[in-house]
Amino acid sequence: AAVSKSTQGFAMSNDDYLVGEVATIDLDVITLAGVAVDPGGLTLRLKPPKSATITHIYGDGIDIVRDRTGRFDADIQLTVTGIWAWRWDLAAPNAGAIEGTPIVQPSRFLP
Hints:
Elements: E1 3-9, E2 17-18, E3 22-31, E4 41-47, E5 54-57, E6 65-68, E7 71-77, E8 82-83, E9 85-91, E10 96-100, E11 103-105
Parallel strand pairs: 2-11
Antiparallel strand pairs: 1-3, 3-7, 4-5, 4-9, 6-7, 8-11, 9-10
């Protein structure tokens, strides 16, 4: 089945973030007919600037939350400045991937 994926908030924002903020990465998984569906598995990979990749797997801990069928999110503490990268990997059925690169700016008040 063909799947359409959309992200909101962190993923699609053109705004910069400030170090210390908590950003939410939302994922909506829907068929091309507009029906919300769950993937067979879900992984979120985060790559903070100059750091190793952090992997979160849905069902393994509480990092990824399923809000309802086809709707997932994760709250990410933005601890360092620079260009971050994130990627959702969806396993069959309803496989796919989507990724983004938000920018985290330094604070004028924090060191």
